[in-house]
Amino acid sequence: MGLTLRLRRETPSTKQMRWVPGGQFLMGCNLFYPEERPVQRVRVEGFWMDAHPVTVSEFRRFVRATGYVTLAERPIDRALCRQAGAAPQGPGALVFLGAPGPVDLNDSRNWWRFVAGACWHHPEGSRWKSRDRESHPVSQVAYADAAAYADWAGKTLPTEAEWEYAARGGMDGAIFAWGDAFCENGHHMANSWQGEFPWQNLCLDGHEGTSPVGSYPRNGYGLYDMTGNVWEWTSDYFVGNHAGVPVETMDACGASPDLAVDLPVRGETEHLNVRRVVKGGSYLCAPNYSMRCRPAARLAHCEGVAAGHLGFRCIVRGNAQRPPSQSQQPRSLTGPANNPDWVTRRELIRQNAETSFYWTAASHLPVLRRA
Ligand SMILES: [Ca+2]
Predict the structure, then answer these.
(1) Residue 68 in this model has a pLDDT that exceeds 80
(2) How far is the CA of 109 from the centre of ligand 1 (A)?
(3) What CA–CA distance (Å, rounded) separates 358 from 288?
(4) How many A from CA of 370 to the centre of ligand 1?
(5) What domains can you pick out in the chain, each with its CATH number?
(6) Distance (Å) from CA 255 to ligand 1 centroid
(7) Ligand 1 centroid from CA 107, angstroms
(8) pTM for the full model?
(9) How far is the CA of 212 from the centre of ligand 1 (A)?
(10) How many A from CA of 269 to the centre of ligand 1?
């Protein structure tokens, strides 16, 4: 089946979408990873955005209407596999299997596996059935799958700038989508990982894997799950940091040139070499491994690789008008120029070891350090 569907609805529905007013914002962050730098002032036009990631239920409607077959479900051409001996026996996708104890965090093969049969309706292969989580974000979708859904819905995938602007919810310059502290009033604000990755999932936020969309507070634009839960595809190619300078960074499944070698190349062979920007972090972001449940966080991910922690949401650009009923104003934080506390907090964060960051940012919680 071709990747491009021409079944677009004439008029996209903005039901279950939120109007994101256009404006300028500070894109990126200088405090964390090199791929997020340098901070730049960027302007985006207003647009509608899905209030939450596309769910399994919504993706099912698309598949039933079109007969679409995702990349993870298509037969593998063994001739196209980089290592013939490593070719799996059937279609599948990357599944997070965890580890029995501490492992080398530089080798993501210690927790990711290609599992035959894993796809959007069986994200972990035979372990789960999709009807157990119709309201969870759909995962195991490659870029082409997300683009096909968007095309069918009369929508499109956001650029990185549009996505990050929306994720900030009007809190320009804040570390998280809700402010500078990881938890607010003792509450977890997104689905991430608490404990030592990849073997100790303490589930202090109430969810071990993906969570039903809308389980955590919405941001200033009324958008749910912009960070945590699942990474989300954007339409931007990954070409380096925000200055266009190449940087070494892992993809969303870990620092993985070696992992990529083990993956089957299906369909267009360039899929493994073309990388798009993914945003928002996921339920696998842990303080000892990846501090990326933040609007500025970004990783590269190969177009053709589906994974269990990667989904998407859509936007609608154009002349759509902001509805009268949506009257919330974007919140803003007082910037460092006139707020000494802001500078102090960020300096403390910078000085802290990576493993303790999340916990020191949430001052009511104990500091967690690696043994
Ligand atoms: Ca969690």
Answers:
(1) yes
(2) 21
(3) 9
(4) 19
(5) 18-361 (3.90.1580.10)
(6) 22
(7) 22
(8) 0.82
(9) 12
(10) 35
Which residue blocks in the chain are alpha helix, DSSP H?
A: 56-66, 143-152, 160-168, 257-262, 340-351, 357-361
| Residue 277 alpha carbon to ligand 1 centre in Å | 23
Query: Using one digit for the tens of pLDDT, what is the confidence trace for 108-136?
Result: 888 988 888 999 999 998 766 656 799 99
Strands 112-116 and 92-96 come out as antiparallel
Q: How far is the CA of 45 from the centre of ligand 1 (A)?
A: 33
pLDDT in tens, 148-206: 999 999 999 999 999 999 999 999 999 999 999 999 888 999 999 999 999 999 999 99
Dihedral Cα 104, 105, 109, 114, nearest 10 deg: 150
Give dist(CA 256, CA 43) in Å, integer. Answer: 33
**Token pair for 164:** 């990050």
Distance 79 CA to ligand 1 centre (A): 39
Structure tokens belonging to residue 257: 């040139």
Tokens 């994974």 belong to which residue? 307
